[in-house]
Amino acid sequence: MATTMSSTAPQDSADRGWRLAAIALLAVRFVQGWIYWGGGTRRFIYGPQKLDVHGHWMAYKFQTAMPGALLGTDHLVAFLLHHFTLLYAGVIIFSAVEMIAGFMLIAGLYIRLAAVATIGLSTVLMLLFGWQGATCIDEWTMAASNFAMGVTLFLAGSASYSLDNWLLSRYQGLAANAWFRWLGGSLPLPLSDGAFKKLALVLFWIAVVFIVATYSYYRGSVITPFHGGPVSPAKHHWKLDHGILQNDGSIKFHAYVNAGVAAEPSNVLEAALVDSKTGKVVERWNSAALSSLPKSAFVNDFAYQQIHTGKFGITGPVGAQAMIHLPPATQNMAPLPQGSYILHLESVNGHIWTLGLQRQ
Q: Alpha-carbon Rg of the chain, whole angstroms?
């Protein structure tokens, strides 16, 4: 039976409830569809530069997700960044699924199939970008809302004003096909009331655990006090390791910008070599010295977000990783005496990061 609304046709209470729910979910279906349709069309139609590998394309955005990505997805992103063909195919497939699923929801074509696709997209976005948002966890909010909308549309469908409903009116035999009920949204799922209730509760608890657990991890406020998260989306941080100090005063070290606002890079204004026992500055590289470092001083791990020289010294976008070589700050410097030394990096905002150095 087609499920278009009719003000004159007699309806039993169950059928009337289903029809009213279909009308009630129209806004949810459209908004969910438009969110993903907009994401896909921005890349394929309105902003094709986002897929132009010769420009600032989507690979850069995925790299910014690495510092806070969950469940090992940071390693997956790193692997893809080193394998261009897989990376590009992944971006194209992800964008295509967004656009197609979004269109299907807007048009009402195989609504439940499209809803499941958006649940999967929301899960991926939560795991990768859920930690981001400078003033609040914006990406978490978006992914959590889309996850819940996808679950709702899968369970209830959204029959009114849909291509699913039109197909059912043209081919009434579809009502007897279980696959059409599972994929489309014009009819209730082919389940008993008890089975439907169990399925709905399972999905409800999956949503509760997924949403509450990720919120607790990112911000606390569940069983712990509110906190800024294991990875700050607002305050830049440099992770420093593999520091080597040579006798001539040159330093090599690995740096990873593993926190901060994805839209803005971090700027290191000054570097200093400090005697760990006396606290005396042995060498200093000011802003001008850091800004004039050659390109060969940076060996970046990835081809996209890269640490490089900038106006204020060394510039590090979020997610960038590189081996950095600081040449001797003073020409013809006498060999450094034995002892332990520490590298200090200071940002424009006054943040300081330190690293103990090994002698070579």
A: 27
